[in-house]
């Protein structure tokens, strides 16, 4: 296996204080700049900024005498409250609710939001979305992605170092922040973070939405009397709650408790080669109206855990998005492969349980 190509760094001469700032600014204005690695080979390419962008930024304000425009404190409160409440009104019923904004949930939202007619709502119990994708394994920074899932990284524009069978992103947060910025910029997506999905809406044996509450309220039901939840109705629910934990696998565990599925055996011990293929292959609509993706798949099917490699999360999320599009009766890569030719999906199988 070829070793990962080393990153070449080009630095400017060391000049103290303001002189260094002026030198860096001059490099940008004159079209120069530091070098960054390309996403494939690690070979450096120049990073350039045009003269006009630097000049415009410098001309907007004087940092030595900067002053903000005046504002009433009530205006700040009113703007936040009004916009959030309007979002709650708009998304009280939606096309797709994604529960969990980890790497699988965000990948699903990114793929779904390509269709501007699909209203996508993301529920994330944490204040900070991203799940475990802010770091690699054991709090290390780098993120390993096995090929061919690197095609997804190419699409969203995440640079990486390349080896024969896998790629390495220098910091997992680079992936997470990149995909999150793209998802949140889409006008048909709304993320409700610090909000928990406490329960499912089930009508006529079909999942038809989620029951929501502030995450801090959900965590403190035992300390108060009655703190009733709210609801979001949807045509499809995508459950990407991750592996078991305080808020993990809540979708499939609730399905079991109401008798819609027989068991949630839990994920088996680590086997990366079996696990990643199984998670993508077994991503599916488990009951009418509810699709399971990411590590929650391992919980319901007893598939092995995959450890700190993230390609299956991305591709499982993509597949879940196209399953949701199919459920909505819209064009999707599972039925019409020419719609998304760059998407490589695992072969569909009827197996209900992954081999350990």
TrEMBL record:
The keyword Hydrolase does not apply. InterPro entries: FAD/NAD-bd_sf, Sti35, Thi4_fam. Its EC number is 2.4.2.60. Its cofactor is Fe cation. GO terms for cellular component: chloroplast stroma; cytosol. Keywords: Chloroplast, Iron, Metal-binding, NAD, Plastid, Thiamine biosynthesis, Transferase. GO terms for molecular function: cysteine-dependent adenosine diphosphate thiazole synthase activity; iron ion binding. It catalyses: [ADP-thiazole synthase]-L-cysteine + glycine + NAD(+) = [ADP-thiazole synthase]-dehydroalanine + ADP-5-ethyl-4-methylthiazole-2-carboxylate + nicotinamide + 3 H2O + 2 H(+). The modification 2,3-didehydroalanine (Cys) is found at residue 226. HAMAP family: THI4. Involved in biosynthesis of the thiamine precursor thiazole. Catalyzes the conversion of NAD and glycine to adenosine diphosphate 5-(2-hydroxyethyl)-4-methylthiazole-2-carboxylic acid (ADT), an adenylated thiazole intermediate. The reaction includes an iron-dependent sulfide transfer from a conserved cysteine residue of the protein to a thiazole intermediate. The enzyme can only undergo a single turnover, which suggests it is a suicide enzyme. May have additional roles in adaptation to various stress conditions and in DNA damage tolerance. Belongs to the THI4 family. This is Thiamine thiazole synthase, chloroplastic. The lineage of its organism: Eukaryota, Viridiplantae, Streptophyta, Embryophyta, Tracheophyta. The gene is THI1.
